[in-house]
Amino acid sequence: MSAEMLTRYAGWPVIAGAGLAGLSTALHLDGPCVVLSPSPLGENAASSLAQGGIAAALGPDDSPALHAQDTLAAGAGLCDPAIVRTMTQAAPDAVCTLLEWGVPFDRHTSGALDLHLEAAHSRARIAHAAGDGSGAAIMRALIARVRATPRIIVLEGASLRALDVHENRLRGIWAGLSYIPTSACVIASGGVGALYAEATSPSGNRGLGLAIAARAGARLADMEFVQFHPTALDIGDRPGRRPLVSEAVRGAGAALIDETGERFTDELASRDVVSRAIAAHLHEGHRVFLDARKVLAGHFAQHFPTIAASCAAIGIDPDIHPIPVRPAVHYHMGGIEVDARGRSSISGLWAAGEAACTGLHGANRLASNSLLEAFVTGQSVAQDLNAISLPNAHHVADAPPALTSAHDYGRLMSAEAGILRNEAGLSKLRRRLSSDALQDDHALVGAFIAHAALQRRESRGSHWRTDYPERAAPHRNSFILADLPLHATSLEYA
Ligand SMILES: Cc1cc2nc3c(=O)[nH]c(=O)nc-3n(C[C@H](O)[C@H](O)[C@H](O)COP(=O)(O)OP(=O)(O)OC[C@H]3O[C@@H](n4cnc5c(N)ncnc54)[C@H](O)[C@@H]3O)c2cc1C
């Protein structure tokens, strides 16, 4: 069966994903481009849900060097120091550009930006907008700008389905059953959180861009590093996304308590430490709550309107009740391995934002560094594309290979590749997923995570092996599809 040819876009760069990374790429390009967005712009993207804000050394007591130092400390020895330097130096300009583009960052009455302090940052450096609605405010401004830019064609309802790669060079992409001949594609499809049963991520974050890139031969790196947020709202067995109770609530002085009313951990320790403490306490049969009653009594909704609304939906008033919380998957440090320009191991394939693995985060992301990364990687990819002339593209292709992404492995992923991992559980997970991975994209991404986590026989950053609790010599994992022990015969691409 042949694919419908979208020849009117032949040769244009195609951007798969319309979160902050995808829109930043599109807006920084000089020429025409196509943006594939499975949902209406702004919906089903982690970018729209970001609460805390974007990290940048903007305060008088701060510097990119201090920001870099905090990023390296959080990354637990696995960050790429050159990338960390580049990103932290680019951060103040990124916030200035966002201001120019109309993002209404919150300010003091003096007019200076109101910068928040977040856990593991040594300075107040988080620029935020609309209180805890930072991501939505940023996305509103960028969407308005995209809509006002005629050279950007947004195909709403369209998803990247496969890449057409010949001799390690891109010659086209399939969006659904349609084919666009092109020598440039940017994967900006976000993270993998929704592969897990409990995640703060939207349902669109299932790692499909990673699976598509891997099937075409791209290298994926740091796949074992999945960050858990310690305090997602505990909504019990209800399906779907777990609303986030941001670090800023603990920053404001709220205490983590159990059902006896006792504190059991340091609320301001790093995310992985607090997540492990809560996971262990839950494992012992306790319930865990975030108690903001004393510190924010009567003012909670004023400071945290989004969180207050999520609490209200399950009958909790944070001024009166402690908020039930438990850890949930929040961010993926791994992804498509890229260099400083966002280039992957396939010629013509770039990646930006959470789908990319730049080396900024190492084994653990510093809070509020990911909106920064999404914006700056989009900019770097666009600058790289602006500097090269893309050849005419005219390849004609058949329909893409038949693959599914129908299965839900969430419970298995949460149980075996969660906060606490071990050889037996990870081997079981890899065995189970490997038998489906050649046909199913969810299974393939899960198999990469299980394989990388098995290979890392140590505990570091967000990766905690109960059977290897110590650190080993630092090394980074990066794999291609052929490195995985998958069971069936390989699929042929058209
Ligand atoms: C609740 C929450 C709060 C957060 N708070 C903060 C914060 O305060 N500060 C911070 O720095 N970070 C925060 N993060 C992380 C940050 O929001 C994300 O890392 C960042 O927004 C990722 O941007 P992105 O553009 O890469 O991905 P996304 O914004 O997730 O966008 C990716 C888009 O690609 C689409 N897509 C998926 N598959 C395909 C496909 N096959 N083809 C085409 N499109 C596809 C998805 O539907 C989605 O719309 C938070 C995350 C969550 C979940």
UniProtKB/TrEMBL annotation:
Please provide the record's keywords in A-Z order.
FAD, Flavoprotein, Oxidoreductase, Pyridine nucleotide biosynthesis
Which SUPFAM superfamilies does this chain map to?
FAD/NAD(P)-binding domain (SSF51905), Succinate dehydrogenase/fumarate reductase flavoprotein C-terminal domain (SSF46977), Succinate dehydrogenase/fumarate reductase flavoprotein, catalytic domain (SSF56425)
Taxonomically, the superkingdom here is Bacteria
The identity of this protein, by name, is: L-aspartate oxidase
- NCBIfam families, per database record: PRK07512.1
One Pfam family in the UniProt entry: FAD_binding_2
**GO molecular function terms here?**
L-aspartate oxidase activity
Q: Does the keyword Oxidoreductase apply?
A: yes
Its recorded reaction(s) are: L-aspartate + O2 = iminosuccinate + H2O2
Q: Which family does the similarity line name?
A: Belongs to the FAD-dependent oxidoreductase 2 family. NadB subfamily.
